[in-house]
Amino acid sequence: MWNLFNKKNKTDGEHRTLQLITDKGMPFGYVEAYKSLRTNLDFMAGSMDVHTLVITSTVPEESKSNVAVNLAMTMAESGKKVALVDCDLRKPVLHRYLKAGHNVKGVSNVLSNQCTLDEALQELKEMNLTFLPAGTPPPNPSEMLSQPQMQAMVNTLREKFDVVIFDAPPVSVVTDAAVIGRYVDGAVFVVRSDYAPADAVRGAVKKLQDAGVRVLGSVLTRYDMKKALKGSSYAYSYAYNYNYAYEKQKADVVE
To answer: Which family is annotated (predicted)?
Structure first.
């Protein structure tokens, strides 16, 4: 399991935003955690041919979208050509958080032949990556994602980019992540610390595996580093270097 030191959430339901690695004052440990995740995935890419990933979780509000965006940015920083795909066709939000415009065409429009893939792709120059929005919410998201056109789109993206990251809805809510997982090289499973029950997490992972999805590993978010270090022999120096920055962060992170 890879640890990402997000700050603890405030009251659920309050305004949330992305907590980007490029934000001013972002803790060193938070940024380094994504670099460590990138390194692990780079090793997998070389040995297991992993270039397309789906990011999912057990339930909402586990910071999976935050992981998807920051991982895409971290991959792009290393010189890779990266595409980030919003595959939440029911409640798409990434286009708003990434300031990609409203009523934009995306995955659903490409799959329904309303536009071409090239017409839907957006260049996010500040983030140095390409973004494919979810598009117009369709009446049948799971069925749409199960079409042969989805596999064709994934294959085209794989040819165009070094890394393609798909942000999918939580496993316990809908079957979309399992459907997408069959088309890609593997899944990264996001687990929020002290949130979803352990049995629910195990059940969600098993659901993916039963669907034939290769689960590459898990990412732990919202981990309370300060609390975990309390009482250890090196807690003072570590907390002095890193924790002050964590306490300064005020925004909640996107699910």
So the answer is: Belongs to the CpsD/CapB family.
